[in-house]
Amino acid sequence: MPGDFTTRKEVAEIYRKRARLYDISANLYYLIGFREQHYRRRAVARLDLRPGDTVVEIGCGTGLNFHLIESCIGAGGHLVGVDLSPEMLARARSRVHRRGWRNVELIAASAAEYEFPPRVDGILSTFALTLEPDYDAVVARGTRSLAPGRRWVIADLRVPRNRLRHLAPLLVWLVRLFAVSLKVAERRPWDSLARHLTGTTYEETYLGVVYIASGRAPDATQPRPDGKV
What we know:
The protein is an alpha/beta fold. 34% of the residues lie in helices and 22% in strands. It contains nine helices and seven strands; from the N terminus they run αααβαβαββαβαααββ. A seven-stranded mixed beta sheet has the order 3-2-1-4-5-7-6, sandwiched between helices. Helix 6 packs parallel to helix 9 (189-196). The longest helix is centred in the middle third of the chain and has 14 residues, at 86-99. It is globular and about 45 Å long.
């Protein structure tokens, strides 16, 4: 249905329009207690990164997580930012140039089209993967690219399980600016982490509207949760 943001074309069009003022508009949610940077910091911390690591960020947007990742991997690491929107990536490119980071690679592609490099040390997606209709396939491919024991981390929005779920149709109107609809918010990427990875964790915050989930790539001696080799 048009306006549900269930297609990549709809999502790309929203972010084409929002790119120039994305950072400012995202900060406005602090007025209702939505501590976006706090959730981003917690998600990056879950990656358990080390100096020299290679990290892929799916749906990197304007690069709001880049400084958090760079502080972990250092100049010897490598950060790959992937985003569907060339306009958002243009803002990310400006951020990289201003900060003088020479270890950042930016790729314009949908998450479903992106080919992960082998043996990456961490994969991150914050407030983005739910917008991808084929998120389960993205998690599966990312898992196969992770070095053994390294982590996939997702922070995103969901329909709450508490009493606020009755207000979900109203709540999504607060985030329609960022291509979130009720159908989008009902997607469950955390289930994909549990399906494809081991040692998964899941926690909710902000009244159950935000979740942070993670999982580790199995070691070579461990069977994959989905039973595949």
